[in-house]
Design a protein that fits this description.
Length: 459
């Protein structure tokens, strides 16, 4: 056992070890009586709500983030996320239940470390585990006996065992003997007022009985219900299954939208009628394309892993193809409508995009289809502006760097009169939709905001 693992941590992160041997029941009891220190790595859309759930449950929490500015803001009581009020952060800072830090040497202090870092795709649409791997190495540098390590980031089945575990065990400590390893997939839905973290059941898989016991003891204090499964891989597969289910069904209704339009049928009217069936049907809604950090990305983690077993995930990949073509479909419908109205399509047209966020009532623009719609419109000769009450400026992104710096334009009758077309990409509630309908010359609606309005173009 190395000197780092043996050093005293102090009362803030007391060890659950006795005479060099792990006292698992004692650590389990610390989770159950909420005297354990919980560390959250990554204070973003997953980690920050998880921290709040732990702090509100009575745990002391220590949050880690590589963004020093974010750490400073959090310690000052400010929230970096629009859907989490400053008051919630200030409350847990004020009573000592939360501290944020960029000092990863303090990773030895918590009794549990919950990893909530991004798992994006490379430019080749393959899994990018660099954040997970870097975090695992950071943990290994300060790893001590008696810590529970839980990966929450969405990834392919086998990641925790095949990627995280070897990095941690390179220290000489062993999973199940010196440390405990689990996977519990995040299930956040930013901006959903009905399901905050504590009200969403948690699936948990552990490597061995002790790890599962400890993870259950921790999460039972955080959420309404825990759902233990037989292995790390099953827990990892659960999250992929949930998001692939959504991606495939959204692709289905997107394809139906195109087919029904050719037949003169409104897809939104069809869905509203179909969902009256009390069994055997679940409504999904079409849109301008997929957005967010989960649904556009997670299916490709499974398709990549499946190739290792010689399996082609044709159904999943077809769904991805359909969903990624939706921005182009929106642009084509806009061009057709403008051609019918003014006789020269998109070339030289002034177009206003409504909504940049990937879904309504939040300011999260990750993977938003709005960016693709804007770029496609401009390639066709349109001049494009946008309005989003929650996104005042487009920040730099890896894929859409040319749009960075653009600012949201006002939404009033005078400004609307200057646009040849308005394209609704995100239907925030905080928009005067009646006023927009009255002032806009042409509206292309991708969200069904104007049901049964024959003057609005469906796309």
């Amino acid at each position: 056992m190395n000197s780092v693992a043996m050093r005293e941590i102090g009362a803030f992160g007391a060890h659950a070890v006795t005479a060099g041997a792990l006292d698992v029941p004692r650590l389990e009891q610390r989770f159950r009586d909420r005297t354990a220190l919980v560390g959250i790595i990554g204070l973003g859309y997953v980690g920050l709500p998880l921290m709040l759930a732990a702090a509100k449950a009575g745990f002391r929490t220590l949050g880690f983030d590589i963004n020093a500015q974010r750490v400073e803001e959090l310690n000052g009581g400010a929230s970096p996320l629009q859907h989490i009020p400053d008051a919630q952060i200030a409350a847990v800072i004020g009573d000592g239940r939360f501290t944020a830090t960029a000092d990863f040497a303090r990773l030895a202090e918590p009794d549990a470390l919950l990893i909530c870092v991004p798992t994006p795709l490379t430019k080749q649409r393959e899994p990018d585990l660099s954040f997970v791997e870097t975090t695992a190495r950071d943990i290994a540098a300060s790893l001590r006996p008696g810590q529970l390590i839980v990966l929450e980031s969405t990834t392919w089945p086998g990641t925790t065992r095949e990627v995280v575990k070897p990095i941690l065990e390179a220290t000489g400590l062993r999973s199940g003997r010196d440390l405990f390893l689990a996977f519990s997939p995040e299930r956040e839905d930013p901006g959903n007022p009905d399901f905050e973290t504590s009200r969403i059941p948690k699936v948990i898989g552990g490597e061995g009985e002790a790890a599962l016991r400890l993870a259950l003891a921790l999460y039972e204090g955080l959420v309404c219900r825990v759902v233990p499964v037989s292995s790390l891989e099953v827990a990892e597969a659960v999250k992929l299954t949930e998001n692939i289910f959504r991606a495939v069904n959204i692709a289905l209704v997107n394809e139906l939208k195109v087919v029904y339009h050719a037949m003169g049928i409104d897809i939104f009217e069809v869905i509203e009628a179909a969902k009256t069936k009390p069994f055997g049907y679940m409504p999904f809604y079409p849109g301008p394309g997929l957005g967010g950090h989960c649904i556009p990305i997670d299916p490709f983690y499974l398709t990549w892993k499946a190739r290792e077993f010689g399996i082609a995930t044709r159904f999943i990949e077809l769904a991805g193809e359909i969903n990624t073509t939706m921005p182009r479909y929106v642009v084509e419908r806009t061009a057709e409508a403008l051609d019918a109205q003014r006789g020269r399509g998109l070339n030289g047209a002034e177009v206003l995009i409504i909504g940049l966020a990937y879904k309504k009532n939040i300011n999260d623009t990750r993977e938003s289809p709005a960016f693709a719609v804007m770029e496609l419109l401009e390639r066709r000769g349109a001049r494009v502006s946008y309005h989003d009450p929650l996104v005042p400026e487009i920040l730099p992104t890896r894929q859409h760097g040319g749009l960075a710096g653009r600012r949201s334009v006002p939404l009033d009758a005078a400004s609307l009169g200057g646009f040849d077309a308005v394209v609704i990409v995100t239907d925030h509630d905080d928009i005067d939709w009646a006023a927009l309908r009255s002032a806009a010359r042409l509206i292309v609606d991708t969200r069904g905001r104007y049901p049964e309005d024959p003057g609005v173009i469906r796309a």
